[in-house]
Design a protein that fits this description.
Layout lengths: L4 E7 L5 E8 L14 E4 L5 E2 L2 H12 L5 H4 E2 L1 H13 L8
């Protein structure tokens, strides 16, 4: 069975795209799944990291009210297009 994902775009605080995250779409709300291991950050090398240091930015932004998953959710297609653009034309906007 193929995993289904939800994708989120975190901005840089000025409205520019900064980081892309994904979470397994299991029908549960984002706020119930902020523990390490459930959210992954896209890395410039093509990997997805769920290390606590990598997801801390999104978790902190959501806890402070600076990130709303409903507003930050993007389609898989948009996520893949942005990631490809960042990898090929650069620069990678967030943490490499």
């Amino acid at each position: 069975m193929t995993e289904r994902w939800k994708y989120y775009l975190l901005d840089d605080g000025r409205g520019g795209p900064y980081e892309i995250y994904r979470q397994i779409d299991n029908g549960n709300p984002f706020y119930g799944h902020r523990e390490p291991g459930s959210i992954y950050l896209a890395r410039s090398n093509g990997e997805w990291s769920n290390h606590v240091d990598d997801i801390r930015g999104l978790v902190n932004a959501s806890l402070c009210g600076d990130f709303d998953p409903a507003d930050g959710e993007i389609s898989e297609n948009e996520a893949l297009i942005r990631l490809e653009q960042w990898r090929t034309t650069g620069p990678w906007p967030g943490r490499p």
